[in-house]
Amino acid sequence: MRETGKLHIVKTKKGKINVSIIKDSNGKSSPFYIILKDTTLDGKPCEFELNDKGQIARAWVEGQELTGQAPVRKEKPKPRSGSQPYTKSGTVQHAKRSMPRQAPPADSFDLQKTCLPKDTRDLPLRDIDNFYLKLNKAARLEGNIHRLSDKSKFVFFHKGKNTIDFQIQANFNADLIEALQQRQQSVIDTISQPTVTFSAKPQWRWIVGLGHESVYETSMSLHFTYGIPVIPASSLKGITRSWMIEEHFAGEEDQALQDSLFRFLFGHEPQGEIAAHQGNIQFFDAYPAEVPEVSVDIMNPHYGPYYSGQAAPLDSHNPVPVPFLTISKGIFSFALALQTAEAPSFPDSKFSSQSPLEFAKTTLIDALQHHGIGAKTAIGYGVLEKQ
């Protein structure tokens, strides 16, 4: 009995042609072991038959059967019984044991497994260079996209018993990152107020935006337009303000608000005779100065039923691995500016001898190097080193 489907033909980097058929009945892809010369039939509707083992045995396109020699696996000749390899000197040469190399994991991106409209899924699209769109809009759904259930789940990473089945791959554009850096620098150069800049890279890994709204259980902060990792200016301002309060005012915000330099930098609400005003320090979004590297990490909540209010925390509960994305490599550029052309003096401040802009820069660098930014700073994430 013939079934209907659509051919999916991909040419690998090594020139090999892989053929599979996406079945119309369930949307799943099954391999078709046949040798073709090119990919001209990719996306063509077809009919096919299965053998007794459930494998695709024959296929037809527009009434004509696809023919081609099926690939044959070459078996290595077995050594003769009792024979051993010898060197030129006549001594026995024992083979060295080596661990098998694991191939890079496949990309999780599969247009056929997204919830995009059908005409979009039918496009011959192999990758998306905008990582924000790839991660959030073209999310891979494990399950039947035509019949969603409780078992349906969006995933960007899946690990088998001994290998990684697939993992989302970031394809950042180096030219775009360089152009964005030049554009931001040109903006900074045109500002008449004083500015300072510096660069930093992660000591290990960092993640900003882990709890942002997402179709996954986790997320990360990405630029909506360019799709590159970004540290929002609001996060930089928040960590600078918080670090200053912790380090210089023993964690007492009320004491910090009594300091004139602190109020000048970060602003404040009305305080008696002191009128409210906005802060005079401007933080810029931190963009990568080079192509960053995105890595997958895992967190293992052990007491899922307890966190969901279903049971007490017991050692019998099984951990549930939750993957999340981190930035493991890449230099980022930071910039700060004053809102005023000249900063007034602050004789009653405990920091009266310091320049407001340089003091804000130093505080931000200290916060990045000693506290970290983003999620999981208590266990070592988010620490950056100044370059």
Q: Tell me the distance between the termini.
A: 67 Å
N-to-C SSE series? Answer: EEEEEEHHEEEEHEHHHEEEEEHEEHE
Number of discrete domains: 3
**CA-atom Rg in angstroms:** 29 Å
Strand order of the largest sheet: 3-2-1-4-5-6
The biggest beta sheet, please?
6 strands, antiparallel
In percent, how much strand structure appears in the residues?
A: 15-25%
The number of helical segments is 8
Q: What structural class do the secondary elements suggest? A: alpha+beta
* Broad shape: elongated
Mean pLDDT: 86
Helix content range of the residues, please?
10-25%
Q: Note poorly predicted spans.
A: 86-95
Total number of strands: 19
Structural features, described:
With 387 residues, the chain is α+β, with helices and mostly antiparallel strands. It has three domains: 3-65; 111-167, no CATH class; 175-386, no CATH class. It contains eight helices and 19 strands. Strands 3-2-1-4-5-6 form a six-stranded antiparallel beta sheet, with no helix packed on it. Strand 9 (157-159) and strand 10 (164-167) form a beta hairpin. Helix 4 (233-248) crosses helix 8. The N and C termini lie far apart (67 Å). The model is unreliable at 86-95 (pLDDT under 50).
Key descriptive features of the protein:
alpha+beta, 387 residues, 3 domains, 19 strands, five-stranded antiparallel beta sheet, 19% helix, six-stranded antiparallel beta sheet
Sum this structure up briefly.
With 387 residues, the protein is of the alpha+beta class. The chain has eight helices and 19 strands.
Question: What topology emerges from the helices and strands here?
Answer:
Layout: E1 3-11, E2 17-23, E3 29-31, E4 45-50, E5 56-61, E6 64-65, H1 118-121, H2 131-137, E7 140-142, E8 153-155, E9 157-159, E10 164-167, H3 174-190, E11 195-202, H4 233-248, H5 253-256, H6 260-266, E12 267-268, E13 277-278, E14 281-283, E15 287-288, E16 293-299, H7 304-307, E17 322-329, E18 332-338, H8 356-370, E19 384-386
Antiparallel strand pairs: 1-2, 1-4, 2-3, 4-5, 5-6, 7-8, 9-10, 11-18, 11-19, 12-13, 14-18, 15-18, 16-17
